[in-house]
TrEMBL record:
Pfam families cross-referenced by the UniProt entry: Glyco_hydro_43
Keywords annotated in UniProt: Glycosidase, Hydrolase
Protein name per the record: Glycoside hydrolase family 43 protein
CDD domains: GH43_Bt1873-like
Family: Belongs to the glycosyl hydrolase 43 family.
Length: 342
């Protein structure tokens, strides 16, 4: 793995990153910002994960690579490296990141849920689990033969949730490419996070968001499929409710290659029961303007923050001060002094 190069500090406005995830490490008073490896800034070639580090969320060290797919013997996939997250568990650190293999097709549904032809390719995609003794890696895959969610499902963006009984779960997005109406699902994890227990549990589908069809052009009666689920992240509120940040698209247009254009948005849902199984109630979007895949963390001064990326292409990290009132999550202000605005 790469060592930390000596260089001038970087700023968020100049740092390529997608699907940002922050770990605020109390032991070192250092913020660790994980994202997909970008050789142009890490200096290391290959699909994997890199981490920027900062003491103040303003000045960041050049990234260190902590995981490379090519260094994992017999790994089932070598593309992607999306949405890395790192979680402390039982004295070790666990990396979740999504890989895919376009040469391993999955069954393609002959029709969508609306009875229309649906011919976009499905291939093997899912979140892997890797482990390390350090936040700086190296991380090693715990099961190189398969993704953590069921391998016949096309999934992405797995995140860790621990319920009140101490049971760990992986919550993930089931791809719209396979379902047309993307879903959020959860599956129990083994106590050491190295496998799964039982069958997946359905949480909600993207089209449950009542606002998703707003601002559709005149003459179009409602939002048209597909409906996208991306980037789940769970947060327990002081009143015992459970929040899930997630992202989707408004006003979708699907290209011949399956690419999406439209408005990427950061939104969230609430389980007032506090249970992962819900029921989940969809809330209004928090940030629009081609923004999303956000997560919440606390600063060392106990300020609740959200980081997300914007725009979807050539993305940069954007920081927001947040507050929670009851079970409602609110944006207070964008920290343009830290992220450079935009």
């Amino acid at each position: 793995m790469a060592t930390d190069p000596v260089s001038e500090p970087m700023r968020l406005a100049d740092m390529p990153l997608h699907d940002p995830f922050v770990v605020a490490d109390d032991a070192t008073r250092t913020y660790h910002l994980y994202t997909s490896n970008d050789p142009s800034v890490s200096g290391v070639q290959g699909v994997g994960t890199m981490v920027y580090r900062s003491r103040d969320l303003r000045d960041w060290a050049r990234p260190v690579v902590v995981f490379l797919a090519a260094e994992q013997p017999n790994l089932w996939a070598g593309d992607g490296g999306w949405a890395p997250e790192v979680h402390a568990w039982d004295g070790r650190y666990y990396l979740f990141t999504t890989l895919h293999d376009e040469k391993s097709p999955l069954p393609v549904p002959s029709t969508g849920r609306w009875g229309t032809p649906f011919q976009l390719a499905n291939h093997r995609r899912g979140t892997i689990t890797a482990v390390s003794e350090s936040l700086l890696g190296p991380f090693t895959s715990v099961d190189p033969a398969r993704p953590t969610p069921p391998e016949h499902l096309m999934t992405l963006d797995g995140t860790l949730f621990v319920d009140p009984s101490g049971q760990p779960w992986m919550v993930y997005a089931h791809e719209w490419l396979q379902t047309v109406d993307g879903t959020m699902e959860a599956i129990r994890l083994a106590p050491d996070l190295t496998g799964t227990i039982g069958a997946p549990v359905f949480l909600f589908k993207a089209s449950d968001a009542p606002w998703i069809g707003e601002e559709i052009p005149a003459g179009v009666p409602h939002q048209l499929p597909p409906y996208v689920t991306d980037g789940p992240q769970l947060y327990r509120t002081p009143d015992g409710s459970l929040l899930m940040l997630w992202s989707t698209y408004e006003k979708n247009v699907v290209g011949a290659d399956g690419s999406l254009t439209g408005g990427y948005v950061q939104t969230y849902a609430v389980s007032k029961s506090g249970e992962i199984k819900g029921p989940w109630r969809q809330q209004r979007p928090l940030v629009r303007n081609d923004s999303g895949h956000g997560m919440l963390f606390h600063t060392f001064e106990s300020r609740l923050m959200m980081i997300l990326h914007r725009p979807f292409e050539n993305a940069r990290g954007k920081l927001y001060e947040m507050e929670i009132v009851g079970h409602e999550l609110r944006v207070l202000r964008q920290r343009k002094d830290l992220d450079g605005g935009g």
